[in-house]
Amino acid sequence: MAALASVFVVLTLSLLINRIATVVLTLTGLSRESARFQARSALTGVGFTTRESEQIVRHRVRRETISVLMLLGNVGIVTTISSLLLTFLNSVGPRQWIVRLLILGVGLFLLWRGATSQWIDRHLSRAIESALRRWTRLEVRDYVRLLHLSGEYTVTQLRVQPQDWLANDDLQGLNLTREGVTVLGIHRSNGRYVGAPQSDTRIYPGDTLVLYGRLPVLAELDDRCADLAGEASHHRAIAEQERRVKQQDCQEKQENF
C-alpha cells in the first residue's frame, strides 16, 4: 500500500506544481489558457509549436519555469509508473488486486474533481499568486488583467502588405483611435522596434503592428485593402465605435444615478 500512496503523492504534487507554473507563466504576460496549456505540455513532455517555443526562449522566467517542469515531469512519470508496478506486483491474490484497483480509481476520481474544481482553482491560484509576489522577485507583467483581455478585446500582431489600407500612411492619417484601435508598437522589417509610436510615425509594407482593440475590428482591419471599399470600411468602423462609446457613456450615467 505504500507504493500506492506514493502514486497519489506524486500525482498531487504534479497537479500543485502545474498550478504554480500556470500562475508564474500568467504573471509573465501569457493568457491563462495559454499558460495552463504550456505548463501541462512541459510537465507531460508533449512539446510546443515553433511560435510557442520562441515565446518561452526569449523570456528568462518562462524559460526557467518550463525547464524545471520538463525535469520534474520526467521524474514524476518514472516514479508513478514504478510505483504502480510495485503496487500490483506485490499483490497476493485477486482480492487484493480488486481492492487496490478500487482505491486507485477512487483516488484518481478525487484528484480529477479537485483539479477541475473552479472554486479550488480560484482560491489556490490567488494564494499562489500572493505568495509569489511576496516571497519572490518575479517580474510581473499581467497584461491579460491590465488590458482587460477578455470577451472581444485582445492584443494581436498584424503584418502590413503592400496592398493594405494601412500601408504608406502615418498614424494621424489612418486615425485608428477613432475605430477603437491602439497601436502599441511596430516591428520594422529591418528588425528595429518602435514602441509607443507617435501620430507622425509612418507605416510601411513589411512592418508588423502590435495592436490592441476588439477582435472583430482587428480582423476586418487585417483584410482591408487600399481602395474605396477600404475607406468605406474605415468610416463604418468609426461610426460603430462612436455608437459603442455613446452606449457606454449612457450605461455609466445610469449606474452613477
Compact summary:
The protein has 257 residues and is of the alpha+beta class. It has two domains: 2-135; 147-256, Alpha-Beta Plaits (2-Layer Sandwich), CATH 3.30.70.
Report the principal-axis shape: elongated
Poorly predicted ranges (pLDDT <50, ≥5 residues)?
none
The protein's oligomeric status is single chain
Provide the structure class: alpha+beta
User: Over all CA atoms, what is the radius of gyration?
Assistant: 25 Å
**Number of contiguous helices:** 10
Report the span from N to C terminus.
65 Å
SSE order: HHHHHHHEEHEEEEHH
Helix content: 55-70%
Strand order, main sheet: write it out: 1-6-3-4
Strand residues, percent:
5-15%
DSSP strand tally: 6
Summarize the biggest pleated sheet: 4 strands, antiparallel
Number of domains in the coordinates? Answer: 2
